[in-house]
Amino acid sequence: MITQIEMLAHFLPLLDTSGKRYKKKSMVRAKKAQAGLVVVTKTSDGDETQNTAETGDWLVENQTSTNELYLVKAETFKKKYSLVQSLEQGWGCYQPKGEISGLIVGKDHLEAFGASSVMEFQAPWKDTMIVKPGDMLVVPPEKDEIYRIAKKEFGETYVEI
Predict the structure, then answer these.
(1) Sign of CA pseudo-dihedral 22, 26, 27, 32
(2) Where on the phi/psi map is residue 46: left (φ > 0), alpha (ψ -120 to 50), or beta?
(3) Three-state SS for 39?
(4) Distance CA 79, CA 32 (A)
(5) With contact defined as beta carbons under 8 Å apart, do 54 and 125 qualify?
(6) Is there a contact between 42 and 68 (Cβ–Cβ < 8 Å)?
(7) Does residue 159 have a pLDDT over 90?
(8) What is d(CA 124, CA 58) in angstroms, rounded to the nearest whole number?
(9) Rounded distance, CA 66 to CA 68, Å?
(10) What's the whole-number average pLDDT of the chain?
(11) 102, 19 in Cβ contact below 8 A?
């Protein structure tokens, strides 16, 4: 499997020259996740990845057509989200803060790794993640991880800054 280190080594220079800056345009729902909770992130084009909650992780739900769910580490959640309103059953409505750098994936990007229509790589949480042409590969300002956001969900969630 293509590692995070290999992905960052290949894509960071491309992001520096061709990437754009984005921020989330919609709020999210979130609550503290139960340790051991298995979350399969589903997008409009199918299962994207899977992750298992550890103590302190947050379960985040994007307000997209698929209401995709994913896990965020407590330290990262605190940096990326501010509480707007408490909701029932431990959920809250949160305003995203911060930004990401993103690059639209082309077939040539996948071909550089010997793939054509779908490529698997190691997600920051060590599970397998897929990426397809038209999707976004994104990095936070720290440039210490890289992950995919599906094309449709990216369009529903982010705006260029």
Answers:
(1) negative
(2) left
(3) strand
(4) 15
(5) no
(6) yes
(7) yes
(8) 15
(9) 5
(10) 95
(11) yes
pTM of the complete model: 0.90
pLDDT (tens digit, 9 = 90+) per residue, 42-86? 999 999 999 999 999 999 999 999 999 999 999 999 999 999 999
Question: What does the alpha-carbon distance between residue 68 and residue 23 come to, in Å, rounded to a whole number?
Answer: 17
CA distance 54 to 65: 27
Per-position DSSP letters for 54-113, written without gaps between them: -TT-EEEEE-STT--EEEE-HHHHHHHEEEEEE-GGG-EEEEE-S-EEEEE--HHHHHTT
Residue 116 pLDDT level (bands cut at 50, 70, 90): confident
Residue owning tokens 């992001």:
15
Confidence class for position 7, pLDDT limits 50, 70, 90: very high
> Cβ distance 71 to 33 under 8 Å?
yes
Tokens representing residue 124 in the block:
């920051």
Residues 148/43, Cβ–Cβ less than 8 Å: no
**Element spanning 49, H or E:** strand 46-52
